[in-house]
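Backbones bend. We report:
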Amino acid sequence: MAKKTKLPSNIEAERSVLGALLMDSGLALSTITSLKEEDFSGEDPRNVLIFKAMKELDAHNKPIDSETVVDQLINMGMFEDAGGTSYLMELLQAPIQINNVDHYVNIIRNQAVLRAYLAKLEAILKDYTDGGIEDISEFMAVNTQALSDIASKRQIANFLSAQTVTEITRENIRKESKLSNNGITGIDTGFIKLNAYTHGWQPGNLIILAARPSMGKTALMLNFALKATQNTGKTVAIFSCEMANDLIMKRLIASEALVNISDLSTGHLNKRDMDKVNAALESIGRTKLYFDDTPNQSLGDIVAKSHKLKANNPDLAMIFVDYINIIDVQGKYDSRTLEIGAITKTLKQLARNLKVPVMALAQVSREADRNESHIPSLANLKESGNIEQDADIVLMIYRPEWYKNQGYKTKENNPLKSGEAQEAENQQKEENSGKPEGATLVVAKNRNGQQGKFTLMFTPKHQRFDNAMEGYDAESGSSYRGGGSSSSNGIDISED
C-alpha cells in the first residue's frame, strides 16, 4: 500500500491568527469571514476547535475574547479537546504582530488551496491506477476543470477571488440583517439623524468635520469622541495639535457635567457644580480615551503613534485629529493645497490599515460667510486639495444664531458690524447664555449613503451638542424655549 502523502500546513500562521483574534475582536469582521474551518489543516486539531468556537460567537454577534471563547468551548463540549485554558494562554502570549494578520490569513488560505490541489491530484492518480478511466478525453477535461476551480481560490498578491468576496459580502449582509440597533453597523455616533445617514462610523472611513471658526467643531468632535468610547467601551485616540490636554478635559467635563465652561475655567463653582464636576471626572476617567497634545505635530508622528497605540491597545475603535490645516508635513510641495492633499491621503490610508474610522477637523474659508445663506459647501473647504476626493464623509456645521450675534442679516451678504473686541465680547456672552440654540449639520459628502442636513442643539456654555426635538429646524428662525429634553438619552438641556 502506497504511503499517504503528508499534506502541507503552517501551524504557526494558524496560531497567529487565533491569537490575534483573541487580542482584538475588531478583526472578526474581516478575518473570520475570510476563513473557513476546513482552511485549518487539522495538523493541530485544537486550532480547528477554537476557530469553530470563534465562528459560532461571531455568527451570534458576540464579542471574541478569552472568556467568551472558553464559555463557548465549554458549551460545545470541546474545552479539553481544544487544549483548555493553558493553550488559550499560549496563543495570547505568543509574539504576534496584529498588523500582519492579513498576511497570516493569506498563508492559511494558500496552504488550504495547496492541500486541496494535492489531494485532488492523489484522487486522480488513484482513479487511474484503479482502472477507473473509460474515456480519456472526458477524464482529462473533468479533472482539468476541477484542478482549475481549486487553483482559482488561491490568494494572488493582495487580490481576492470573486468567490471569496461574495462569501465575505454574504456573511456581512447576513450579520447586518440581524442587527437590532436601528441599522447601526459601525460605531454609534450618538446622534439619531446622523446614524440614519451614516449607519455609524465605519471602519476604514475618513470623516472630515469642517466649519468656520467659532461654529463649535472642536466641541462636536469631543462630543463624538466621548460618545464613541462610552458606547463601545473601547480605546479612542485624540490628537490635538492646537489645544492642550487640560483645556480639552475641561470641555469634556463641561459637556458631561452640564456646568458653565467659563465658571470651570475661572474656578467659580459652587458646591453643587463641584459635585457634578467630580462625578464627570470619575465617569470620563473610567473611559479609554487617550490624548496627545504635542504641538506642531507632524503627519509621520500621528501615523507612527497611531500604529503604536493600536499595537498596545488592540481594541482601538476610532482616531480624532484636530486639525489637518496645521499638521506639519515633511518634504517639499509646490503649494499648501498639495500638502493638505498628502495629509488627507495618508489619514485615509491610516484608517484602512488600522481598520478604524478616522475623523479629522478642517477649516472652512471666509467664502462661506459670503454665501447667501452662510451655509458652507465643499467648495468652501480651505486649502481643500484632495479633501473632497479622499474623504468618505464630509460634515459641516453652520449656526444661524452665531451669524445674527455677529451682525449678519439672514440671507444677505453684510459684513461684520463689530471688530475683534466685539466678537470676543459676543463669544463670552454666548458662553454665559444657558439657552440652547439650533445648529445645522450638513452631510456634504457621503460616499456610501445619502447627503442632506439636519438640526442639532448646541449649548455654548456647556460646549455640548444634543439631538434636536423632532420638527425643530435651526434655519426656520423659531426660538427654542427649553423646558424639555432634545436628547435621545433623556438629558435635559434646558437652562439650569
Notes: The domain at 11-175 is CATH 1.10.860.10 (DNAb Helicase; Chain A). The mean pLDDT is 78.
